[in-house]
Amino acid sequence: METPLREPTFLILTALAGDPLHGYGLITEVTRLSGGRVSLRPGTLYGALDRLADAGLVAVVREEVVDGRLRRYYQLTDHGGELLAGETERMRRNVEAATARLHARPGRPATPRLSGGPA
Hints:
Blueprint: H1 7-15, H2 23-33, H3 42-54, E1 58-66, E2 69-76, H4 78-103
Antiparallel strand pairs: 1-2
Helix pairs in contact: 1-2
């Protein structure tokens, strides 16, 4: 799997870093994790899950029939956890570098003081 990961893929893996989830649970969790910015359609989700499973990053851990329909629960594999941890660290370093650059900009206004404190 290529890195950097696309945001939907990153969010799917992040959602599965907790308890196993089925499709609708994954759609809901990805929407929650992204603050509503990413909303997966079922076809997009299941295509991504097939690719992630083929890459050994997620696995089906159980299946059950609910209202006559098969519900598969997916879980992050050890390999998927390692990839997610590496991508998270890469992103953290990028945020750290950008934050340092923003704080070091010439002509940047002084840090504002909280009102009510000593002048």
